[in-house]
Amino acid sequence: MMSQTAAEPIQRRKLYQEVMDRLLDMMRDEGLAVGDQLPSERDLMERYGVGRPAVREALQNMAQLGLISIAHGERARVAKPSFANLYESIALTTSGILRNSPESLRDLKEARLLFEVQMVRLAAQRATPEDVARLRRRLEDHHASLADLGQFFRHDMLFHREIAVITGNSIFPDLSQAVIGWLGEFYSQLVRLPGTEQLTLSEHGQILEAIAAADADAAERAMRDHILRANKLYAQHQGQGAATAG
């Protein structure tokens, strides 16, 4: 007997999505390299038998994904794909998810903790004297930014990104920057709490010295304490805000 369960409806794809697929196939089949131009919008319209809106939407979406670059008055060119472009393309969506889903925010904070503590272990194991000197300059820049809270948060991110660079893993720097950027709007208010800036700098100093000593266990403990302290402080701050609003 045939199953009585309802069949899932077939989702109809939008025209621009079909154009995107064709363009990606064309780029692969014709061996287009970074910097090569794509056909003009008119040529693409004729090639695929579609209107200008479908072609333009396909190109704009590909540009947002970092697959092509578009300059005014010129034909689109093949871009060099990067994880930075990928993370940037989903930043707005991610921000919306985190604002409207406390569970997703909690899960991202947990994912960041696991990522950062393992990342700092690698950094401690692999850091060269030049790496340590570069990280020390990052911390000095962070100290120097105390007068400007916006710059202070930026240098906070750059310190963590430098640790990612030290690991030698090409994916980690952009991933670290993206995650901290996504969480930024939730944590940036914490640097305005009295004493928080100096505590952050002190914790960064402990992380730095553990990396300089090639002590992976100490680096992991320092990073774990640093992130858990920030998470706890954020939770307390949010709780106080909710009580005040009530």
From TrEMBL:
Q: Which SMART domains match?
A: FCD, HTH_GNTR
Q: Looking at the keywords, is Transcription regulation present?
A: yes
PROSITE patterns from the xrefs? Answer: HTH_GNTR
List UniProt keywords, sorted A-Z: DNA-binding, Transcription, Transcription regulation
Any transmembrane segments, and where? none
* Residue ranges of domain HTH gntR-type in the record: 13-81
Alphabetized PANTHER family for the sequence: HTH-TYPE TRANSCRIPTIONAL REPRESSOR NANR, TRANSCRIPTIONAL REGULATOR, GNTR FAMILY
Q: Which NCBIfam families match?
A: PRK03837.1
User: What is the name attached to this protein's record?
Assistant: Transcriptional regulator NanR
